[in-house]
Structure formats: C-alpha cells, structure tokens
C-alpha cells in the first residue's frame, strides 16, 4: 500500500510539475506577444492552433463530462469517461458512482468493473473490492488487470502475502508477455522475502 501511495504521489507530483511548466511557457509566450484588442479576441482564439491552447483543468473537464452524461444518461461510455476523470482526480466516491451507472447500462465490462473495484479499495472497502474482482474473474477468467489488483488488495489490505503471490504467479503464467512483468516479479520476491 505504501509503495502504491508513493507511486500515486509521484505521478501526481509529475502532473503538477508538467502543468506548472506549461503555465510558465504560456506566460512566457504571452509576454512576447501583445494581447489582442477585445474586438479581435474571438477571431484570434478561433484561429489559434489546438497545440497552442492552454490545457483544460481536470476538474472543469469532469464537470463538463458530467453535464454531457446528464444529457445522455443512457450512454455507458459517457458515464465511464466521467468516472475516469473523477478517478484521475482522486475522487473515488464520485468515480465509483459513475462506474456503477455505466455497469447498469452495460453489465460485465471487465475494465469498468476492475476500476470500480480499485475505487472501493481506495475508499477502504477492501472486501467489496475483492468481491467485485472475483466477479470479474468469474465471467472473464484470467483478466490481467483484475488479477493484478486482486493481488495488491490481498497483499496490502488483507495482509495475505500467500494469496497475493499465488494470484500474481498465476497472472505471470497465464500472461507471459505481461507488460509489468519485471515489476511484478520484484514485488513477488519482496513478498516472499518478508514471509
């Protein structure tokens, strides 16, 4: 759990640094070019290339997506997009709500249901998270992300190192080309060394 929190903190810090650098770049660019007169501003903004526009704030994007999903409540993809945005913002309760809405519209989506389980885990509901992951693995046996996350929850929330090792070794056997293989092998070694 501490390793995951540290990784999440590093990711968030990297994003914050990237945003600060981007903002600084735009301030620098603005200082070289005089502001357009108010009557010219709409045309200048309309013709500005996309890559020169400042990034949209993640909270604003979440709010915009939520408004879109309210207008089209039967669209599971929109519900998932809203959930993903809240997930990225660390608002796991809101993310879980939108993942559940998506699953009501399109049940048994292993990607969405696995993300929902991770939200439950971050909300301190590890039993519900494991139940959700077990459900995914029932209808989608060997789904790698569900297997990986089940191991994380077993190791960190349940202190079940043997269970985590078993699911992760099964993951590596069933998916020999698993993208994070080296990292997972290191985690397994660390767990085995701590037993």
Secondary-structure content class: mainly alpha
Portion in helices = over 70%
* Main sheet makeup: none
User: How far from one another are the termini?
Assistant: 17 Å
- The CATH homologous superfamily of the largest domain is termed Tetratricopeptide repeat domain
Radius of gyration: 21 Å
Mean pLDDT: 79
Q: Ranges with pLDDT <50 over ≥5 residues?
A: 18-50
Q: In total, how many beta strands?
A: 0
Shape: elongated
Q: According to CATH, what is the topology of the largest domain? A: Serine Threonine Protein Phosphatase 5, Tetratricopeptide repeat
- In CATH, what is the class of the largest domain? Mainly Alpha
Count of the domains: 3
Can you describe what's shown?
There is one protein chain. The two termini are 17 Å apart. The protein has helices at 2-32, 41-47, 58-71, 76-88, 92-105, 110-122, 126-139, 144-156, 161-174, 181-194. It is built from ten helices and no strands. It folds into three domains: 1-32; 58-107, no CATH class; 126-195, Serine Threonine Protein Phosphatase 5, Tetratricopeptide repeat (Alpha Horseshoe). It is elongated, with a radius of gyration of 21 Å. It has 195 residues and is mainly alpha-helical. α6 runs antiparallel to α7 (126-139), α6 (110-122) packs parallel to α8 (144-156) and α8 runs antiparallel to α9 (161-174). Residues 18-50 have low confidence and may be disordered.
């Amino acid at each position: 759990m501490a390793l995951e929190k540290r990784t999440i903190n590093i990711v968030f810090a990297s994003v914050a640094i990237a945003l600060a650098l981007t903002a600084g770049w735009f301030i620098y660019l603005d200082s070289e070019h005089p502001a357009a007169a108010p009557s010219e501003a709409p045309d200048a903004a309309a013709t500005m290339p996309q890559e020169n526009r400042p990034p949209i704030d993640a909270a604003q994007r979440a709010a915009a997506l939520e408004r879109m999903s309210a207008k089209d409540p039967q669209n599971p993809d929109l519900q998932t997009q809203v959930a993903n945005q809240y997930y990225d913002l660390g608002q796991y309760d809101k993310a879980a709500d939108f993942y559940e809405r998506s699953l009501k519209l399109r049940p048994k989506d292993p990607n969405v249901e696995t993300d929902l389980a991770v939200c439950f885990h971050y909300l301190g509901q590890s039993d519900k998270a494991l139940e959700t992951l077990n459900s995914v693995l029932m209808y989608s046996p060997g789904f790698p992300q569900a297997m990986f996350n089940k191991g994380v929850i077993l190791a960190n929330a349940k202190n079940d190192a043997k269970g985590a090792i078993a699911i992760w070794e099964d993951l590596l056997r069933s998916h020999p080309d698993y993208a994070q293989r080296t990292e997972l092998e290191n985690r397994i070694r660390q767990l085995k060394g701590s037993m």
